[in-house]
Specification:
Helices cover 75% and strands 0% of the residues. The protein is mainly α and 458 residues long. The protein has a single domain, classed as Amino acid/polyamine transporter I.
Length: 458
């Protein structure tokens, strides 16, 4: 189908949308607990290096593909490959992105629903003065209620569909114009609160004092993985958003802005969380339960905890929504282009299917906590259910393979003069080109193999 996609109204709006795509649960949930589990400052140092040397080159590569072809992730991969005289099979790059976006959104929406449910719960003072065991029990009770989780999942998915259905300018742009400034404002308030009421100096020391003896293979592998997944690379989000770019946008500088903003949110989230965690005597390496167990308990024992806790979950909700609209846009862009569907119809239909698939994740915590045949997931630390399978499949397999193929497509398949034309006259082209061709695919491959093989050598 010959579909003409919309373009961003300005470079600034594109940057807000792209940063919103990157900023998500990986920043406010995964980064803090990984930093807690991997030595604080030692992890942060390695993470920053990985963002610069692995994540940033991939952002540039995806934007180069998208702006060159001006199509969906699938159409863009096919077009740049054909332009280079290469096999049409490189379209798999786009298809991996569409599949990954669909599957990730199906469970991402469920977790977004948790944030939506915890917002009024926290604001009402439900955790004020409540002991840790009772907070944990409340979360387990929530997970055990399929109807409550389904409603929260439906509301979050509906919000995502409504934004995407309105289009790039009337929907996504207007959404990020509201949510992104609010997100950053709330985050600044949370950090200020943590500085006044929490053990801020201890948190600064924890995040920025580097104990080089803590840097080992596992810390490096975790940092590479976090940098890769936090920046939303490997799934075609930046290809899709890059397709809406104007020709006068400087891709290298825009990519640096995206990477810096995403990293800043992750670090500021740590500075908002760890002072409070330390103040109430919790373990900073609390793992995934940090967000829905440790923090509600902490806010429940802090001054103005109900109001500040509600702000925190509102911040998380905005971060999740700006990422979910990018995930849905990847699939809707393909449907518009290759099926000729009207955008509003495509968003509604795809959103409905995603919602139904997401019910399998909802049921993974109550009705179907274990499924025969998925017992092998235990060796990877995943629960033997659909949620565990999707998490392993997307994060440990599809996204890494997608990232490697994107690096190879731009680094080896596209003609160098075409890549240089899209990249621009930046003097660092040679360094980026070398990183993309050699360091990036090798590093991602090492992480993927290590993660898949880790259980057998533990």
């Amino acid at each position: 189908m010959n579909v003409s996609h919309e373009t961003w109204s300005s470079r600034f709006v594109f940057l807000m949308a792209a940063v919103g795509s990157a900023v998500g649960l990986g920043n406010i949930w995964r980064f803090p607990y990984l930093a807690g589990e991997n030595g604080g400052g030692a992890f942060v140092l390695v993470y920053l290096l990985c963002v610069a040397l692995i994540g940033l080159p991939l952002i540039v590569a995806e934007l180069v593909i998208g702006r060159r072809a001006k199509q969906s992730a699938v159409g863009s991969a096919r077009t740049v490959a054909r332009e280079a005289g290469a096999s049409g099979r490189w379209v798999v790059v786009g298809w991996l992105g569409v599949v990954a976006a669909f599957l990730i959104l199906s469970y991402y929406s469920v977790i977004g629903g948790w944030l939506l449910a915890y917002l009024p719960m926290t604001a009402s003072g439900a955790f004020t003065g409540v002991e840790g065991a009772a907070v944990a029990t409340r979360f387990e009770t929530f997970l055990g209620d399929p109807w409550g989780m389904t409603l929260a999942h439906a509301l979050f998915m509906a919000a995502t569909v409504l934004i995407v259905a309105r289009g790039v300018r009337a929907g996504i742009e207007q959404g990020v114009k509201i949510m992104m400034p609010a997100l950053f404002a709330i985050l600044v308030l949370l950090v200020a609160y943590a500085a006044v009421e929490g053990e801020f100096v201890r948190a600064l020391s924890f995040l920025f004092t580097v104990d080089f003896s803590r840097i080992d293979t596992e810390v490096v592998i975790n940092a590479i993985g976090q940098a890769f997944f936090s920046l939303s690379v490997g799934m075609g989000a930046m290809i899709t958003y890059g397709a809406y770019l104007q020709r006068d946008t400087d891709i290298p500088s825009a990519s640096v802005t995206i990477a810096v903003a995403d990293t800043a949110v992750a670090i500021l989230a740590g500075l908002a969380i760890f002072p409070i965690v330390f103040e109430v005597g919790l373990d900073p390496s609390g793992g995934p339960g940090l967000l829905f167990k440790s923090l509600p308990y902490a806010f429940g024992h802090m001054p103005l905890g109900a109001a500040v806790g509600a702000l925190f979950f509102l911040f998380g909700l905005f971060a999740a929504l700006t990422s979910s609209i990018a995930l849905l846009e990847i699939v809707v862009s393909w449907a518009e282009e290759h099926r000729g569907w009207k955008r509003s119809h495509a968003a509604a239909l795809i959103g409905a299917v995603v919602f139904v698939v997401g019910l399998l994740t909802v049921f993974s915590f109550n009705i179907l906590p274990r499924i025969a045949g998925l017992g092998f997931l235990k060796i990877y630390g995943e629960d033997p259910n659909v949620f565990g399978l999707l998490d392993l499949l997307t994060n440990n397999l599809i996204l890494p393979v997608g990232g490697i193929l994107i690096a190879l497509l731009v680094g080896y398949v596209m003609r160098p003069e075409i890549v240089r034309e899209e990249y621009g006259a930046d003097p660092l082209f040679g360094a980026w080109w070398a990183l993309l061709r050699y360091a990036v695919p090798l590093a991602i491959a090492v992480v993927m193999v290590f993660e898949l093989a880790r259980p057998f050598f533990a």
